[in-house]
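pls design
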């Protein structure tokens, strides 16, 4: 067992109104939970093939089309399994022969490994960068799919989705937007498959994948679905497309997950859609990075300001302060999930800036960190070994 954190009490006037800063599963707004409780008797425990749940799925699909300002012809597909499951579905149902991947963190690397291990696909190519930075997207001969991550959750690096100049005709741009969708601006016309799960910016639970697909991507899905390529039914995007057009999923989804995502989407749309949500995240990011840049004990991990995520902040602490101890003290005071990504191995805090999180709470978090560091330094406890 790890040692108990130092007994440090953060003054109540410094604490955030809500202490949830997890990068996934994210803070769920209390108002959404209350609405679910009010409607649970008529919604939970009902068939996902019947009008009640199908209407909720329609609200999700239509609400996303409004929030993301989707062009004509783009469709919203949904299915079970989350982003990890959708990587497998992409390898079966969208990538034809060979993909090219930008790898600059844990999750972008994992998808590249999925396509590399797929026996029916050719060897993928990769452009790699060290964590904390990102490689450029350039055309590669023979690639029919370009795979990148809008926001690398593990490192707090964000890149703008774009199409590579000189790419082969018909090549698709496939974007992992798991921690970006609903919080970062992008132009849908620069993407063909923009996919994500709802447990981050959409303030819901996991287990569902959502994919915004261009007409070109739909054509690719239908063409592969009509081919003799073997696909497990649960990962068959042709089946997912057919079911999504009926406002349902192939197999039973988590109804609460769909409901809570709808609550978040419609809340965002009420206030102005993605433009409003992204501005709210940018305000939180300004609090986080502005504090770190002016601090004596904190530094933004991502050195290039243009690559700093506005939905996931990664902040390095000074060598004489143990970030794990700081996070443990924060947790003991009701401020949760500021620990760094486990595989990155840095003396770092990582916390979400998602739309459901109040920007003022992010500002309060920085003040809490300052208080804890001050107490650790003055008391001589919590120093790094």
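designed seq:
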């Amino acid at each position: 067992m790890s040692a108990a954190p130092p007994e440090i009490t953060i003054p109540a006037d410094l604490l955030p109104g809500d202490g949830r800063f997890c990068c996934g599963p994210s803070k769920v707004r209390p108002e959404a939970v209350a609405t679910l409780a009010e409607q649970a008797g008529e919604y939970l425990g009902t068939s996902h093939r019947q009008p009640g749940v199908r209407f909720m799925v329609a609200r999700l699909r239509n609400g996303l089309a409004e929030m993301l300002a989707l062009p004509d012809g783009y469709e919203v597909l949904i299915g079970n399994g989350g982003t990890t499951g959708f990587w497998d579905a992409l390898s079966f149902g969208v990538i034809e022969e060979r993909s090219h991947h930008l790898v600059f963190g844990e999750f972008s690397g994992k998808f590249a490994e999925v396509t590399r291990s797929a026996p029916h696909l050719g060897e993928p190519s990769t452009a790699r960068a060290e964590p904390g930075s990102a490689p450029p997207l350039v055309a590669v001969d023979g690639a029919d799919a370009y795979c990148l991550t809008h926001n690398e959750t593990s490192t707090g690096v964000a890149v703008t989705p774009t199409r590579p100049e000189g790419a082969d005709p018909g090549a698709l741009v496939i974007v992992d937007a798991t921690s970006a969708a609903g919080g970062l601006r992008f132009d849908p016309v620069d993407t063909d498959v923009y996919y994500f799960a709802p447990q981050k910016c959409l303030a819901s639970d996991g287990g569902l994948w959502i994919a915004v697909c261009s007409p070109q991507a739909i054509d690719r899905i239908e063409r592969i679905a009509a081919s003799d390529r073997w696909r497990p039914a649960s990962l068959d995007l042709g089946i997912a497309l057919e079911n999504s057009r009926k406002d349902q999923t192939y197999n039973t989804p988590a109804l609460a997950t769909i409901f809570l995502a709808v609550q978040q989407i419609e809340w965002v749309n009420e206030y102005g859609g993605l433009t409003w949500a992204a501005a709210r995240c940018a305000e939180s990011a300004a609090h986080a990075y502005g504090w770190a840049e002016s601090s004596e004990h904190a530094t933004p991990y991502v050195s290039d300001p243009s690559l700093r995520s506005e939905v996931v902040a990664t902040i390095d602490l000074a060598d004489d302060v143990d970030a794990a101890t700081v996070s443990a003290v924060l947790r003991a005071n009701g401020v949760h999930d500021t620990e760094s990504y486990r595989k990155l191995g840095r003396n770092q805090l990582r916390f979400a800036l998602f739309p459901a999180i109040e920007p003022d709470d992010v500002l309060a978090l920085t003040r809490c960190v300052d208080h804890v560091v001050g107490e650790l330094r003055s008391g001589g406890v919590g120093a790094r070994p």
